[in-house]
Write a structure and sequence with these properties.
The structure is a single chain. The chain is α/β, with parallel strands linked by helices and 430 residues long. It has 3 domains: 151 residues, 3-Layer(aba) Sandwich (Rossmann fold), CATH 3.40.50.1980; 122 residues, 3-Layer(aba) Sandwich (Rossmann fold); 106 residues, 3-Layer(aba) Sandwich (Rossmann fold). 46% of the residues lie in helices and 16% in strands. It is built from 17 helices and 14 strands. The strands form 3 sheets. A 6-stranded parallel sheet has the order 1-12-11-10-13-14, with helices on both faces. Helix 13 links the parallel strand 11 and strand 12. Helix 7 packs parallel to helix 9. The longest helix has 25 residues. It starts with 17 loop residues before the first strand and ends with a helix. It binds iron/sulfur cluster (SF4). Belongs to the BchN/ChlN family.
Length: 430
């Protein structure tokens, strides 16, 4: 593997034909986002208005002890609520009153819709307005949907952030807003790089606390750190903010391109950019070269799941020497994913949406060396001898920016290493 990333392809995948599918999907629902958002927004509480299934999903996925006073919970809709025998709004008001009386630390309350609340058409926006009036200014009540009927699991964060944008105050200050929930250690690295470049003031959405929040206006420029923030992108543009389009900060190349786009918007001199990025770029390239050895000349197939698929395919093909067979995304937004598609060398089938049986047929026919997919598909494919990587792991693990670039390559290399270790033993056992 070369130490340098290859030059941009003359023709990327931005204008490649897209296979659009609208069949059965195999993905987690948007409630999953609460698992990382409740850690990030430290004065918030996420109240899911849903069923026992929703409560079990959150409890088991988040792995939080029930006596640990977590910052999320479920207002259970009983059968009588679903049958319309109770006044669900009155019950929700009572639950919220009890919660806020018991937890004075809560400053932001998110009412999170689910499949059951959507099916009975419970109007959570009306409830949020009513409860905001009741509890303002101490508590702000917002609502969004995490229902699995329409959302994939990362869209929960998108819906949450998009719900926050309209209530942020107005501002005329020229500021950079970095949008997307990152692990604190990664966020600190990013803020350190931007400070060294002389870019500022820099704000982050979501902020840790409501008092840290910023204003938005026509002088706000924003950069996304997560490729699944389509609604938030649209909401920010409606407030007059301007998006800095860039590849996403995965790998050495993506991070450099992301920082370069911001540096250009803030007139950072080229020598400053080179001085600040030279050493971390070198470290990232070395770490990738070491971690990605098992990936070289291997093929990868992406099922649509996390919405990270296009930037990750760009990273794997250009920085880890893999070839992509199919790159599936739940949704493709040109304004958000275009810069990564420009860099993705032509060849893979780009697909949007899912018809899972047809896609499984394509995957089985291609027999890729590595398949990136959801948990529900991984085990059956492993049983058929295909190596898989769980898409959800890529969202839960710190993978952005230079210092995590080697770890990102390692995440993909691990299933291939495991297979290489196990294969001789399996053959011997047979
Ligand atoms: S929101 Fe829907 S998909 Fe998600 S746990 Fe609840 S019932 Fe299941």
């Amino acid at each position: 593997m070369t130490e340098q990333t290859p030059p941009p392809p003359t023709t990327g995948c931005r204008t490649a034909p897209v296979l659009k599918q609208r069949g059965q999907r195999e993905v987690f629902c948007g409630l999953t986002g609460i698992i990382w958002l409740h850690r990030k927004i430290q004065d918030a509480f996420f109240l899911v208005v849903g069923s026992r299934t929703c409560a079990h999903l959150l409890q088991s996925a988040a792995g939080v002890m029930i006596f640990a006073e977590p910052r999320f919970g479920t207002a259970i809709l009983e059968e009588s609520d679903l049958a319309g025998l109770n006044d669900a709004h009155a019950e929700l008001d009572r639950t919220v009153e009890q919660l806020l009386a018991r937890r004075p630390d809560i400053r932001q309350l998110f009412l999170v819709g689910s499949c059951p609340s959507e099916v009975i058409k419970l109007d959570l926006s009306r409830a949020a307005e009513r409860l905001t009036q009741q509890f303002a200014p101490k508590v702000r009540v917002l609502e969004y949907s995490g229902s699995g009927i329409e959302t994939t699991f990362t869209q929960g964060e998108d819906a949450c952030l998009a719900a926050m944008v309209p209530v942020l105050p107005s501002s005329d200050t020229r500021e950079l807003l970095v949008v997307g929930a990152l692990p604190d250690v990664v966020e600190d690295q990013m803020l350190g790089l931007l400070a060294d470049l002389g870019v500022g003031p820099v704000r982050v959405l979501p902020a840790h606390r409501i008092d840290d929040e910023v204003g938005i206006g026509p002088n706000t420029v924003f950069a996304l750190t997560q490729p699944f923030l389509g609604e938030t992108h649209a909401a920010l543009e409606r407030r007059g903010a301007r998006h800095i389009a860039a590849p996403f900060p995965f790998g050495e190349e993506g991070t450099t391109a992301w920082l370069a786009a911001i540096a250009a918007a803030f007139d950072v001199p080229e020598e400053t950019f080179t001085r600040v990025t030279e050493a971390p770029r070198r470290r990232a390239r070395a770490a990738i070269a070491q971690a990605a050895a098992p990936l070289r000349n291997k093929s990868v197939f992406f099922f649509p799941d996390s919405q990270l698929e296009v930037p990750l395919a760009r990273f794997l093909t250009r920085e880890c020497a893999m070839s992509a067979v199919e790159v599936g995304m739940p949704y493709i937004h040109d304004a958000i994913h275009g810069p990564d598609l420009d860099l993705l060398p032509q060849g893979p089938q780009i697909s949007e949406g899912q018809d899972v049986d047809l896609q499984l047929d394509r995957c089985r026919a291609a027999r890729p060396d590595l398949t990136v997919c959801g948990l529900g598909l991984a085990n059956p494919l492993e049983a058929e001898g295909l190596s898989t990587k769980w898409a959800i792991e890529l969202v839960f693990t710190p993978v952005h920016f230079y210092e995590q670039a080697g770890d990102l390559a390692s995440l993909f290399a691990r299933p291939l290493r495991r297979k290489a270790i196990l294969s001789p033993r399996v053959e011997a056992a047979e």
